[in-house]
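lol forgot to send this yesterday, sorry. struct tokens for the thing we talked abt
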């Protein structure tokens, strides 16, 4: 009688086939479950931009990636070359904006002029009188050196629409250098950078602007009441004049063409700058020389020659310098000196430093051009 049997080889083949079939079925089931669990992984036009799908199609058909174009616009401001030119907003303003509604409905009026005052709370009534002389064509900015800001809103309605910047124990040139960059104030035709101790009974800002335009002044200041004191002869108000641009006194101080302080000169107490002049003056202001002494002798460098035609004193709109030493009280007593004396010493020190820097910079410039420096190019007389 015969016995039926399978060889070991055939049994092993059958087992391998079953394992392979089981593995294949498990892989198919796992794939179906994965697809059902993560439907967002399916790539459709509803999930990817059309341009990206188009890029995938090209890449797949050509079997190579297509480089994405990059933006590099060298005419853009430095640092913004990677942006498309039409999105560049290189200039700004100090206009206040709403937090709601459409942006094109924010501004009922766009002021054409800017008036800044460096102030302490003790002089608030003086500043209130000053602001009343400026129309709504002006943006008003107060730089607070004493840290007191909220009280102004309690007393003056106009203060609620003014811009308040508070940093303790700083000067107006420190503020101006840091908050009045030319690109920030580019919307304003004229910029007033004034002290807090000015009497304005005989001043009207709109009339002042009219005179500045009429006489082509790029840098100017109101005349000073001759009965109340002044430092420089040229700033003294003249009777029966609209504007004057030079003085006939102390001519031994000046060269030809006339230079500061006989002409092309205004004091740093109440200067007014055109937009173009301010762009230059801002660059002239030094970061560490905060009092600005000596700056008035160098302002002529920021207008076209002849500078004595572009810089002048407006006599028809005049002010009173009250000589209130308020900033001196912000100093610190040192080495037996009163606070105000320390401040005054720093002012004189800065004047010498500024004059030295300007002279050296000019000489280095002409030396680089292999040209002899002009003999009358010093900052002061």
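and heres what i got for the seq, position by position
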């Amino acid at each position: 009688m015969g016995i039926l049997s399978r060889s070991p080889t055939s049994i092993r083949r059958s087992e391998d086939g079953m394992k392979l079939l089981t593995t294949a079925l498990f892989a198919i089931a796992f794939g179906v479950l994965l697809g059902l669990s993560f439907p967002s992984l399916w790539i459709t036009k509803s999930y990817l931009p059309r341009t990206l799908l188009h890029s995938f199609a090209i890449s797949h058909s050509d079997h190579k990636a297509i480089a994405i174009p990059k933006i590099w616009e060298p005419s853009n401001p430095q640092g913004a070359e990677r942006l498309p030119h039409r999105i560049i907003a290189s200039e700004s303003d100090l206009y206040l904006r709403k937090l709601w509604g459409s942006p094109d409905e924010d501004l009922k009026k766009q002021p054409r002029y800017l008036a800044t005052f460096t102030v302490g709370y003790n002089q608030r009534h003086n500043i209130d009188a000053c602001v009343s002389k400026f129309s709504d064509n002006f943006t008003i900015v107060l730089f607070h050196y004493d840290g007191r800001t909220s009280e102004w809103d309690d007393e003056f309605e106009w203060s609620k629409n003014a811009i308040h910047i508070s940093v303790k124990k700083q000067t107006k040139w420190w503020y101006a250098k840091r908050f009045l960059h030319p690109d920030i104030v580019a919307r304003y035709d004229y910029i007033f950078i004034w002290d807090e101790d000015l009497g304005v009974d005989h001043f009207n800002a709109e009339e002042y602007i009219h005179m500045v335009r009429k006489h082509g002044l790029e840098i100017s200041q109101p005349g000073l009441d001759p009965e109340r004191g002044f430092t420089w002869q040229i700033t003294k108000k003249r009777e029966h004049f609209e504007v004057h641009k030079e003085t006939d006194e102390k001519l031994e101080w000046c060269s030809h063409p006339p230079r500061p302080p006989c002409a092309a000169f205004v004091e740093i107490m109440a200067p007014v700058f055109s937009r173009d002049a301010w762009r230059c003056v801002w660059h002239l202001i030094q970061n560490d020389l905060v009092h600005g002494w000596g700056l008035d002798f160098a302002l002529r460098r920021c207008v076209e020659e002849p500078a004595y035609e572009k810089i002048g004193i407006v006599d028809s709109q005049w002010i009173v310098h009250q000589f209130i030493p308020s900033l001196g009280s912000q100093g610190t007593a040192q080495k037996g000196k009163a606070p105000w004396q320390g401040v005054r010493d720093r002012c004189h020190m800065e004047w010498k430093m500024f004059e030295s820097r300007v002279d050296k910079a000019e000489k280095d410039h002409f030396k680089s051009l292999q040209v002899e420096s002009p003999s009358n190019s010093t900052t002061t007389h």
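The CA atoms of residues 225 and 356 lie 33 Å apart. anyway ping me if u want another try
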